[in-house]
Write a structure and sequence with these properties.
Layout (H helix, E strand, L loop, with lengths): L9 H7 L1 H6 L1 E4 L10 H16 L2 E2 L3 H5 L3 H13 L3 E3 L20 H4 L6 H10 L3
Antiparallel strand pairs: 1-2, 1-3
Helix pairs in contact: 1-5, 3-5
Length: about 130
Protein backbone atom coordinates (compact mmCIF):
# COMPACT_ATOMS: atom_id res chain seq x y z
CA UNK A 1 0.00 0.00 0.00
CA UNK A 2 1.63 3.21 -1.13
CA UNK A 3 0.21 6.65 -0.47
CA UNK A 4 1.98 9.90 -1.28
CA UNK A 5 2.27 11.63 2.06
CA UNK A 6 3.43 14.96 0.62
CA UNK A 7 1.65 15.41 -2.69
CA UNK A 8 2.36 18.13 -5.27
CA UNK A 9 -0.95 19.85 -4.52
CA UNK A 10 -0.19 19.76 -0.79
CA UNK A 11 1.38 23.23 -1.05
CA UNK A 12 -1.80 24.63 -2.62
CA UNK A 13 -3.94 22.94 0.03
CA UNK A 14 -1.71 24.22 2.85
CA UNK A 15 -1.74 27.75 1.46
CA UNK A 16 -5.56 27.73 1.19
CA UNK A 17 -5.90 26.48 4.79
CA UNK A 18 -3.03 28.49 6.29
CA UNK A 19 -5.18 30.61 8.63
CA UNK A 20 -7.12 27.56 9.80
CA UNK A 21 -3.91 25.62 10.50
CA UNK A 22 -2.24 28.44 12.39
CA UNK A 23 -5.10 30.09 14.26
CA UNK A 24 -7.84 27.48 14.30
CA UNK A 25 -8.48 24.90 16.98
CA UNK A 26 -7.30 21.56 15.58
CA UNK A 27 -8.40 18.13 16.75
CA UNK A 28 -7.57 14.60 15.70
CA UNK A 29 -10.36 12.85 13.79
CA UNK A 30 -8.50 9.55 13.29
CA UNK A 31 -5.01 8.16 13.60
CA UNK A 32 -3.18 7.78 10.30
CA UNK A 33 -1.60 4.50 9.28
CA UNK A 34 2.00 5.26 10.22
CA UNK A 35 3.22 2.61 7.77
CA UNK A 36 2.37 4.92 4.85
CA UNK A 37 4.05 7.95 6.44
CA UNK A 38 7.68 8.37 5.33
CA UNK A 39 10.06 7.03 7.95
CA UNK A 40 11.75 10.39 8.59
CA UNK A 41 8.34 11.97 9.38
CA UNK A 42 6.81 9.19 11.47
CA UNK A 43 8.08 10.43 14.83
CA UNK A 44 6.82 13.99 14.34
CA UNK A 45 3.47 12.83 12.91
CA UNK A 46 3.02 10.48 15.87
CA UNK A 47 3.81 13.32 18.32
CA UNK A 48 1.36 15.67 16.57
CA UNK A 49 -1.37 13.02 16.63
CA UNK A 50 -0.68 12.16 20.28
CA UNK A 51 -0.97 15.81 21.27
CA UNK A 52 -4.19 16.33 19.30
CA UNK A 53 -5.72 13.06 20.53
CA UNK A 54 -5.26 14.20 24.13
CA UNK A 55 -6.87 17.59 23.62
CA UNK A 56 -7.63 19.94 20.71
CA UNK A 57 -4.93 22.58 20.34
CA UNK A 58 -4.45 25.88 18.57
CA UNK A 59 -2.33 25.24 15.52
CA UNK A 60 0.04 28.06 16.38
CA UNK A 61 0.92 26.41 19.71
CA UNK A 62 1.72 22.94 18.38
CA UNK A 63 5.31 23.72 17.25
CA UNK A 64 5.96 25.36 20.62
CA UNK A 65 4.61 22.44 22.64
CA UNK A 66 6.47 19.86 20.56
CA UNK A 67 9.67 21.96 20.32
CA UNK A 68 9.83 21.28 16.59
CA UNK A 69 10.41 23.44 13.53
CA UNK A 70 7.26 25.31 12.55
CA UNK A 71 7.63 24.59 8.83
CA UNK A 72 7.87 20.82 9.39
CA UNK A 73 4.94 20.80 11.81
CA UNK A 74 2.63 22.75 9.49
CA UNK A 75 3.67 20.65 6.50
CA UNK A 76 2.71 17.49 8.37
CA UNK A 77 -0.50 19.05 9.73
CA UNK A 78 -1.39 20.00 6.15
CA UNK A 79 -0.92 16.40 5.05
CA UNK A 80 -2.94 15.13 8.01
CA UNK A 81 -5.75 17.58 7.16
CA UNK A 82 -5.65 16.64 3.48
CA UNK A 83 -5.98 12.95 4.35
CA UNK A 84 -8.83 13.74 6.79
CA UNK A 85 -7.05 12.80 10.02
CA UNK A 86 -7.03 16.32 11.50
CA UNK A 87 -10.04 18.63 11.40
CA UNK A 88 -10.62 22.23 12.42
CA UNK A 89 -12.82 22.40 15.51
CA UNK A 90 -13.29 26.17 15.64
CA UNK A 91 -16.36 27.19 13.63
CA UNK A 92 -14.94 30.43 12.18
CA UNK A 93 -12.21 28.44 10.38
CA UNK A 94 -14.25 25.35 9.50
CA UNK A 95 -14.40 26.21 5.79
CA UNK A 96 -10.85 27.48 5.45
CA UNK A 97 -11.60 31.20 5.48
CA UNK A 98 -12.05 33.14 8.70
CA UNK A 99 -15.58 34.38 9.06
CA UNK A 100 -16.67 37.48 10.91
CA UNK A 101 -17.70 36.96 14.48
CA UNK A 102 -21.47 36.98 14.96
CA UNK A 103 -22.86 40.30 16.14
CA UNK A 104 -24.24 40.20 19.65
CA UNK A 105 -27.54 41.88 20.38
CA UNK A 106 -27.20 45.12 22.29
CA UNK A 107 -28.75 44.90 25.74
CA UNK A 108 -31.04 47.68 26.92
CA UNK A 109 -29.57 50.11 29.43
CA UNK A 110 -31.79 48.81 32.24
CA UNK A 111 -30.50 45.27 31.85
CA UNK A 112 -26.90 46.48 31.65
CA UNK A 113 -27.04 47.85 35.21
CA UNK A 114 -27.79 44.51 36.84
CA UNK A 115 -25.52 44.40 39.83
CA UNK A 116 -23.53 41.23 40.26
CA UNK A 117 -22.46 40.70 43.82
CA UNK A 118 -19.98 38.19 45.04
CA UNK A 119 -20.83 35.52 47.56
CA UNK A 120 -18.92 37.38 50.27
CA UNK A 121 -20.83 40.60 49.54
CA UNK A 122 -24.15 38.75 49.76
CA UNK A 123 -23.19 37.11 53.05
CA UNK A 124 -21.96 40.43 54.49
CA UNK A 125 -25.22 42.12 53.49
CA UNK A 126 -27.19 39.36 55.21
CA UNK A 127 -25.15 39.60 58.38
CA UNK A 128 -25.33 43.37 58.63
CA UNK A 129 -29.02 43.88 57.87
CA UNK A 130 -31.33 43.97 60.91
CA UNK A 131 -33.61 41.01 61.28
Amino acid sequence: MSVNWITPNNQEFSHARKDAMQYGLLKLASWPNLNVVPEERQALVARICALLSRKPSAGRLIPLVLAARESEVFENIGSLMQHGHVVVASPQFAHGEPQAAPQLAVKPAAAAHVERRSLVAKLWARLTTPA
